[in-house]
Amino acid sequence: MKVAFDLVDVAFDMGSVLHGRQEEIDHELIDGRGRVTLPYARPMDIAAEKYVSLVTFRRSGDPVHSPMWLAPLPGGRCGFSTDGTAGKVKRIRNNGTVTMQACSMRGVVTAGAPVVTGTAVVVEGDELDSIESAIVAKYGWQARIVGVPSAVKRLLRRPNHSVGIVVTLDA
Fold first, then answer.
1. Are both 105 and 150 inside the same structural domain?
2. Residue 3 in contact with residue 24, Cβ under 8 Å?
3. How high does pLDDT run on average in the chain?
């Protein structure tokens, strides 16, 4: 079913707004709040989202959803940093298959958001530093505030268990 409507106040996932154009859009692409969600032109476009729901899988195969920040990395990859003792790290080390969807800060998946699949690996050292730099570049002052506990640990010479997760997206 196609629905024709005026796109004056319809915001797309990537944040752009089209004014005054008539378009025909599949009815399934309109979420409950009248917003249009379109499949990403490229899987890497998921990195433009502010919050992403990362789905990792337990040994039993059960999915576990975790909302997080995600930053684009060179080579068509994306990544995030997290505590090395987090459950998602253990799950990724066991099974690197992940899926991602746009979501809210609280992890509520955006209605109609496309699912992007990929393979995640845990990294440390220089790769972790590049991920943290990419996160700061994308999220600015918010990322700096979130990074304060890690900075305090470094000042107190306490072990910092942060690791990076690099996701290579499927085409």
1. yes
2. yes
3. 76
